Amino acid sequence: MVKYSWTYSKISGVSDCERRTKVIYTPGKFNETFDLCACIILLVLIVVRLSRGFTWTLERRSSIALLLLDVNVLFSAFFGFCWTYMANHDIYANSWQPFFCGIVQKISFASISFLFFLFALFLTIGERPLKKDRWLIYCLPYALAIAALLLPFSRNKIYRLVASSYFVHGPWHWILDLSACLYLYGALRAVWHRWRELGERFWWTVSFEVIYLLAIVMNAKFIYLRMSNFLLTMSLLTLTLFIGDFDIRGWREQSVIDELSEIKNRYGFRHDFRYFVDKDLCVAMLDVDHFKDFNDLAGHKCGDEVIRIVGQTGRLFFGNDIYRYGGDEFLIVTNHMTRKQFVKELGRMADSVASAYIDGAPRPVTLTIGYCFGHPQNNQDLRDLLTKADRYLYQGKEGGRRQIVGEKVE
After folding, report:
1. Transmembrane segments in this chain: where (predicted)?
2. Which among 7, 61, 335, 395 is least buried, having the fewest CB atoms inside 10 angstroms?
3. For the whole model, what pTM was predicted?
4. Assigned superfamily of 264-406
């Protein structure tokens, strides 16, 4: 097999060696190894995720997008390995296999940015539905990029096939790069507005975005080195492990953001459970007094507005430390303030909710609150704290409601 030095013409998008009689490019054994390792890692990751109870439902859209992203990078690595193997073992002359593997690999690589954007979008919006016009806007750049790869006229200007063995960049390759950059920008914008809520998930999501940008640059500038799929595989592995999505039965049970109140829900609290151990905590359970009256007398729309007002007001005073625990019950767990400040903020929150205007509400919205303090050493201690706060809540209900009951603060 003959090797030639590689030169690239920015004007024509065709290498000088394409004009020679014998044109063969050898990717090298190391590139085979990179793609093969990526295939094995992704295959194990996908099988483990599927075996742990993954089910296909629209309520778990971010998890579905992440799984599809795993599968898509697997396709990119697998067909990249097939093409490399063919080029290294003389399976190239007058054969359609290298061409087919190359095109599928390019389509798979171009699809990564779109699936990553969907993952970031669903991670932030939870279960809220998207309008059809939004879907059309979001899918348009991806559809144009794929169409450009499939149509012979445009495909030949994006990639040029050299001796049935290697694709080189053509003058229209910027179409794929532009599509990828648009989706990466959209993904960053989606998670940027909720970076406080996402916490470490935000940083792992951004890290994958940086690695993907690096992979695009490597594909464009370092044509001899084909390890972009391996880099994306390792980044996907860490993203899946550290973002919390590996616990399919837990985090995937529902979105961690409650659609109505726009605060974290009970499943979000379960995910944050480990962060509260071995810390000085202030815990409170809140309940809307006679919530059923709002639904019965003013309709469910009014009841929904009550839930939204309580959730958003609580967020103003306690940030991301408030959760919708279920129905009209809310939970606050924080270690970001003193006990005296915590009790004071509970009172201010209750007053703010009572003074909020809700159209059609038969009366002001009042709260009964039970609170306590503690330093849990393990998960069971934390559960005991929640039970203790719940007992104070029911003491407040039995005492006439619209009151704050809990431990004395010195």
Report:
1. 33-51, 63-86, 106-123, 135-154, 174-192, 230-248
2. 7
3. 0.52
4. Reverse transcriptase/Diguanylate cyclase domain (3.30.70.270)
